[in-house]
Amino acid sequence: MKFDQKGIAIIGSGLAGLTAAYFIxxxxxxxxxxxxxxxxxxxxxxxxxxxxxxxxxxxxxxxELNARPGSAYWRDYGLPDGRNIKKLFHDLGVHVAKxxxxxxxxxxxxxLKPKRLDKLKGNFPAARVIDELSPAQGKxxxxxxxxxxxxxRSLKIMKMILAGETCGPWTHLSAQYALDCLKSAVDAKExxxxxxxxxxxxxxxxxxxxxxxxxxxxxCIKVRRKRHDTVEVTYRGKTxxxxxxxxxxxxxxxxxxxxxxxxxxxRHFHSYISMLFKFASKPGLIGQKVDLRxxxxxxxxxxxxxxxxxxxxxxxxxxxxxxIPYGDRFCRLSDEEIEGKCMKVLVNRxxxxxxxxxxxxxxxxxxxxxxxxxxxxxxxxxxxxYLCGDxxxxxxxxxxxxxxxxxxxEAILDDLGQ
Length: 418
Known about the structure:
alpha+beta; seven-stranded mixed β-sheet; about 25% strand
């Protein structure tokens, strides 16, 4: 099949879109054009420099990085060219660092007695409880109602963890999705990793290796198949609305179903807010032996998760990241109003030892985490049009985005006879 000079279009320059571009170029010399509505690349991956820290996706699990052919994890995390994610990173020159062995803490604010998850054996026997629950019971609310109707503390702790892992109301979750998220959070054998230099380093390496043309500030309006060998992309750029033809299109943005006018049921997204506070010294809680570098879940409706990081950069080297789930309630507030509400919780309820320096960096993720997981790694809309992203995986993660982008790239090239 003869290709015109336009090649393949990718909608969205997040981790899935950049991975798709990389794998297309690894297999073929087709030109790739990436349409990005924002002026920056990365999607839900955002490494902040002022203050230093991650506003978006940050973690990889060891099981995601090190999947081996034939293992239980290969179907979910193996790449189409036979590499695993760790080998992909090696080839890109991207390095990861293992997180400290400490477990996150949990605290119920009316008692303010934080305890590490692995020390809550009496009140939250995590491994035993999760193994007893059955994912075949449909909704998570149905799955747990017979197990925890007399154990409010365990139920409260599970709600804290699920709010941080899914950013959505626990009543929305399927049993399978909720249990997968809980297992990843409390599995004592699991190791957690971050990208050295920040998640943005991975974006830079993928972008450089794909040699793609990125059209920033270009908002796609519609994607439709015109003929058997042509897909038309309508987008609004800096000089107005334009239409361009391509041989195929991969849509990695969250609005993929709408752009492609796809009839399958799209999943909704749970918004959330990320805040980064600067500190001159290590933040802690008055009278509590809590290392916030391990993380802290709370049952406060505003502030679900806190985590401190020593960035080793500048005078104010400590960063405290705060996660606000169910962000629909707060996204319309001004930065000053969000900061004010969070400071009241930090000072009055959590009793933080030292006050932060200056105003925090605030990021609203309106299209945040997709609700639910799926065994599919991508979705075919029609000949030459595919959907991918972190919504295609057991749970939304950086690994799911990478695998989805890679497998969508393989599928579209196979579709086009390349």
